[in-house]
Amino acid sequence: MELILAIGIGVLTTCGVWLLLRPRTFQVIVGLSLLSYAVNLFIFGMGRLRINAAPVVNGGTVDPLSYTDPVPQALVLTAIVIGFAMTALFLVVMLAVRGFTGTDHVDGKER
Amino acid sequence: MILPILLVTIVALPFAGALIGALLPREQQTTGAWLAGLIAAFGLGVTLWSYPQITNGNVVRIDIPWISSLGLDLIFRLDGLSWLFCLLITGVGLLVVLYARYYMSPKDPVTRFFSFFLAFMGAMLGVVLSGNLIQLVLFWELTSITSFLLIGYWFHLSAARDGARMALIVTGLGGQALLLGALIIGHIVGSYDLDVVLASGDLIKAHPLYVPALILVLLGALTKSAQFPFQFWLPHAMAAPTPVSAYLHSATMVKAGVFLLVRFWPVMAGTDQWFWIVTFAGLTTLILGAYAAIFQTDLKGLLAYSTISHLGLITTLLGMSSPLAAVAAIFHIANHATFKASLFMAAGIIDHETGTRDIRKLSGIFRFMPFTATLAMVASAAMAGVPLLNGFLSKEMFFSETALRDANPFVNLALPIGATIAGMFSVAYSLRFVHGVFFGPAPTQLDRVPHEPPALMRRPIEILVLACLIVGVIPGITIGPFLAAAVVSVTGPETPYYSLSVWHGFNVPLAMSAVALVGGVLLYWALYGYLQRGIEGPPLIRNLRGQRIFERVLTTISWKGAKWMERRFGTRRLQPQLALLVLFAIGAAVAAVWGRLGELIAPPTRMDPAFAAIWLVGICCAIAASYQAKFHRLAALVLLGATGIVTCITFVWFSAPDLALTQLLVEIVTTVLILLGLRWLPKRVAFAGDDVALLKVRIRRVRDLAIAIVAGMGMALLAYAVMTRPVLVGSIGDYFLEHAYKLGGGTNVVNVMLVDFRGFDTLGEITVLGIVALTVFALLRRFRPAAESVDKPEQQRLQNAFDAQQPERYDGETVSEYLLVPAVIMQWMFPVIIVLAVHVFLRGHDQPGGGFAAGIIMSIGFILQYMAAGTRWVEDHLRILPIRWIGFGLLAAMGTGLGSWVFGYPFLTSHFQYAELPWIGRVPMATALLFDLGVFILVVGATVLILIALAHQSVRSPRAARPPVRVPETEAQIGQEVL
Fold first, then answer.
1. Which of A28, B483, B497, B908 has its CA 20 to 30 A from that of B175?
2. Who wins on pLDDT, B463 or B903?
3. Is B654–A50 a contact, with Cβ atoms under 8 angstroms apart?
């Protein structure tokens, strides 16, 4: 399982970085989204992969070993929401710049 | 034990006064003067009262611990030396306030002047009372900044601005050097505590880092005291109002430099390096300053160069490293402060009453203002070193120190000769000041008839001149004890015997004094004709202007150098920047991980074919999305969504229900959002170019792909290496798991962390979300799409054309009928979605869910209504006020946090208990729920605001942007490759 997820993260990163270096704003926004998936999964993976060990306790005394680490999850939850905000802002800036400069090139001009 | 507290007070009070002064209305100049005067008087009172406690080398100190482990404590300490400086700072300060009350024109913002003045006074007191090196440097920097404000007070004058800037840059750079020096000394000694440092003189001098520390500390002191080669800033600082000059250049600012030299004298002086650097700088400044002073035409310029020269004298004395020379230096610090302050004030009065400070225009002023003239003459005599005045005493001590050295023959000759020549110069410029201004024929070039100033304006000068006289005639019983206290604190218990009396018999120093006096008079007489011609600047070194060199260096660094750097290393193009960023990140990761990755082991969990299949789909979708992102945006968006779903499934698979829920919902909203944006993007056409351009593009793509593959492989390797390590036992996660229920009252640990343990984080996060939403809203309010995107989309045009052809259909009917059946279902779903949102919200504390997820569900409900019924219909039927929701959400979250203050707990402390509700039973009621409610409301507001701001663009028929003007390429925009 770890191998599959690691390969998945690697491919998502590759796609994300490749798109990040493209000249069109839409490519960059897709690239950023893919990169966010990869990074979120990476951070999530730092808590190790556990099956059927969701950090929902049942009150009383808790044995930490029977639950997965909640810290990476809390961090990723924050990251997902911030990622949404970033995508929204970037999209709008991208549209505004496109109207402003007449092009969707990341530098605001074709060449 | 009241004194230590008073020490803190006299440093803090001026800053408080500065704040009050800044808030006073500008007409309240008398209030401002009273404020400044009372604070200065209080400081003076405390200083005088504290004298008995610091005699015989006693030290009063107060420690206020802060970060003691780093040696950063607030320490105020008062010893004899700082006492003398406190006396000068507060005493001269009080007199300057009185003087400024009459000098400053009501047309200027006088309250601001007093505000800056107080801040400066506080900074100076902080410097001299600091018992910690870092703290001393901090106050030192504050004096640089506040003196910048004071010098640039008349900021409408370019001379004031330039002078202030130069002073700030020179003394600020010195401050940087001093900070480094203080850090090195702290490193050598192992403590920043001044008392410890002062006791470690031998350790410092023997350390290999002594020379760097010495040079850095001296850079700080010499820049501040305007010593050669940094003397050039001081004359330009004369653009300040005269009270500022009287204060900064007599008793305070420039004295901070020599204060530092005296402070470190016990631990750093006595070595060859100290002697050569300090004495050379001091002697050069002494002679050059005095020489330049003779040829100044501006009264304040003359006094400025004289100040430089006198500071050179003090520096020379300190460089000589003998205890007696240190005594003379401290004595001269006090003497110079008194006569120079009074001379600056006198110059100010002359300027005030005649309208000019130009010696060429002034003459024979004595007949108009005999009192002021007499006072100025006495002070000038003290400056020249005439017997029976205080200047004579310290100058005699200086002469005797230079004459009695027995180092190498060169020094033996150079020092006394240099001192005598400088003495002659100082007699000459003092004569020029007195004779040029007060005697001779009545002035002809004045536009008014001068008269005596108000008596109170003259009072400060009278007091200072009286001090010069008394100290000059009976030094032993006036300044003697105070000087002794200061000297003992510097030279320690082995202070040599020194005699403070006017007459020491016929000896070498007396002869040197006589030569200087007679020689000075002769020199002035010889130069009289030349001076009368009124030529600006001193002969021989007229063209050697430090200011010009400074300006040139500044231009080179900040303009030409910056331009060159930008041309050489800068780019305004995003792609190279991002490529560099990625490469740098790869490099940093490799550097961090290299050799520490350990052995890669086989995965501990069993491989599941279903999971592999899901990820095969995910990988294919990601690659396809990147392939299609250029020409088929919609397809890329769908594929991106699919990758998101695979991510979401991964979260479900590996025990992260909260993440899966949030990811799924965010995925929906993001997709809708980007769909709304697609309409405004241009049609992509295939790249058309010649073979060379195409080849370039191919090379770039291959290069980027290589970077991307390296990055991806690195991430995969890193992820695999970490995920196959055994689980950490006893990590912070265990604490949260164990305490989520006990302390937070919830069983969903992730949610308890978000709203309780790490609630402050979440508060910051929702604030960011709110800001982003408002930014999006603001950006789209004046949205101008490109001209070719303004028309209705092709589909709508086709549908409308169809309507036009059919006689029984009205225009736009087809569009409105689009998705009719799903639209009805969507409208029916609205209450269901609301219930779902409430459910997810309420269960959040114990089961997967919570404010974020519920908020996004709620906003999806809203956006579905928009899609089903259209913007106009929804806004006619629902009250959509997302900006207000953002505000309410933020207020609710903040209010919950602040609420815990009311009960005496830290911000955002959560409280919970169980409530028995009829029919429902025991329900946990946590204040964290209230906080989560704030999160919910804000998320609804922010998401809806973002979505409908974009959706509105299709309704409001925006005007097209004008076609952009092609800007010619500037040289800074380098780089050829595109695409």
1. B483
2. B463
3. yes
At B850, is the pLDDT very low, low, confident or very high (cuts 50, 70, 90)? confident
- Domain annotation covers residue B904: yes
Summarize the confidence of residues B624-651 as an average pLDDT. Answer: 93
Chain B interface test: which of A51, A78, A103 (most B C-beta within 10 Å): A78
Predicted confidence (pLDDT) per residue in B439-461, tens digit: 888 887 777 888 888 888 899 99
Contact B659 A77 (CB under 8 A): yes
Structural domain total, chain B: 2
Are residues B681 and B757 located together in one domain of the fold? no
Q: Which residues on adjacent β-strands are paired with residue B76?
A: B62, B130
B762 and B680 both lie in a single domain: no
Domain edge (last residue) among B641, B668, B685: B685
What's the domain range around B835? 747-960
- What average pLDDT does range B138-159 have in this prediction? 93
Contact list in A for residue B636 (CB cut-off 8 A) is 26, 30
Q: Note whether B656 and B803 are same-domain residues.
A: no
Together in a domain, B679 and B751: no
Per-residue pLDDT, B134:
93
Q: What is the pLDDT of residue B973?
A: 40
Q: Per-residue pLDDT for chain A (111 aa), expressed as one digit of tens each? A: 888 999 999 999 999 999 999 988 999 999 999 999 999 999 999 888 888 888 888 877 778 788 888 999 999 999 999 999 999 999 999 888 888 888 888 888 776
Give the nearest chain A residue to B605 (CA atoms). Answer: A1
Q: Is the pLDDT of residue B974 over 60?
A: no
Q: Which residues contact B695 (CB under 8 A, 6 or more apart)?
A: none
State the ipTM, two decimals: 0.96
Cα B538 to Cα B334: distance, rounded to the nearest angstrom: 29
Of all residues in chain B, the one with the smallest CA distance to A18 is B708
- Nearest residue of chain B to residue A1 (CA atoms): B607
Is residue B682 within 8 angstroms of chain A, CB to CB? yes
CA distance B38 to B244: 18
How large is the average pLDDT for residues B581-608?
Answer: 84
Domains and CATH numbers, chain A: 2-50+69-101 (1.10.287)
Contact B665, B709 (CB under 8 A): no
Tokens of A52: 């059927």
- B605 at interface of A, judged by CB pairs closer than 8 A: yes
Kindly report the backbone phi and psi dihedral angles of residue B445, in degrees, each rounded to the nearest multiple of 5, phi listed first.
-100, 15
Residue B273 resides in a domain: no
Q: Which residues in chain B (621-660) have CB-CB distances under 8 A to chain A?
A: 622-623, 625-626, 629-630, 633, 636-637, 640, 643-644, 646-647, 650-651, 653-659
Per-residue confidence band for B972, with pLDDT thresholds at 50, 70 and 90: very low
Q: Which residues pair with B64 in a beta bridge?
A: B74
Which stretches within B269-389 are classed as H helix?
A: 272-294, 299-319, 323-354, 370-384
**End-of-domain residue from the set B685, B708, B725:** B685
**Which residues of chain B does A64 touch, with a Cβ-Cβ cutoff of 8 Å?**
733-734, 737-738
CA B914 to CA B921: how far, in whole Å? 10
How far apart (Å, rounded) are the C-alpha atoms in residues B910 and B927? 6
Residue B906 lies in a domain: yes
pLDDT score of B976: 36
Q: How far is B595 from chain A (nearest CA, A)?
A: 20
What's the CA gap between B430 and B512, in Å, rounded?
18
Query: Over the stretch B64-114, which tens digit does the pLDDT of each residue have?
Result: 888 888 888 999 999 999 999 999 999 999 999 999 998 988 888 889 999
Q: Does some domain include residue B798?
A: yes
**B754 and B840 within one domain:** yes
> Is the pLDDT reported for residue B604 higher than 70?
no
Residues of A in contact with B780 (CB under 8 A): 92, 95-96
Asked whether residue B660 falls in the same domain as residue B768, the answer is no
Name the residue in chain B with its Cα closest to that of A49: B654
Start-to-end C-alpha separation, chain B: 75
Statement to judge: residues B634 and B782 lie in one domain? no
A99 → closest Cβ in B673, B712, B783: B783
**B676 and B791 within one domain:** no
CB contact under 8 A, B716 and A6: yes
Instruction: Give the integer Cα–Cα distance in Å for A40 and B705.
Output: 22
